Inverse folding.
């Protein structure tokens, strides 16, 4: 068998955090959701059944949770920090697709969510 594409997926991670431009957002906070798609070569893990050949979902969650605890004005900044952290902590991750959504943002509109989505590749050494 030849694996042509493989990904670690975490969908619907939920956090309460204090990101935003408005004063109320930094005091009261809001709910955020994150979806992640991490491109990882899973060939060895599929063959060997060893955790060291893959990326731990639990460790990824912990890294994202740590970054969400640090308030930022812009969701773009939060998303960028999360991607940098994941590349730093998980050398097997080659590419990241991240979607970060703020639920019911205070913008005077009838809107369920607003957010950012980015796709990042690890830079070569």
């Amino acid at each position: 068998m030849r694996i042509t594409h493989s990904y670690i997926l975490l969908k619907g991670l939920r956090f309460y955090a204090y990101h935003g431009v408005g004063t109320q957002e930094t005091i009261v906070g809001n709910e955020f959701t994150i979806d992640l798609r991490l491109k990882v070569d899973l060939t060895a893990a599929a063959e060997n059944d060893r955790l060291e050949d893959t990326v731990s979902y639990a460790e990824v969650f912990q890294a994202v949770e740590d970054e969400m605890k640090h308030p930022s004005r812009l969701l773009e900044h939060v998303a960028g920090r999360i991607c940098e952290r994941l590349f730093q902590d998980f050398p097997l991750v080659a590419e990241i697709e991240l979607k970060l959504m703020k639920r019911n943002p205070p913008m005077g509109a009838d809107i369920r969510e607003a957010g950012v989505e980015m796709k990042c590749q690890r830079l070569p050494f």
Remarks:
- The chain is about 30% helix and 35% strand.
- The chain has one domain: 7-121.
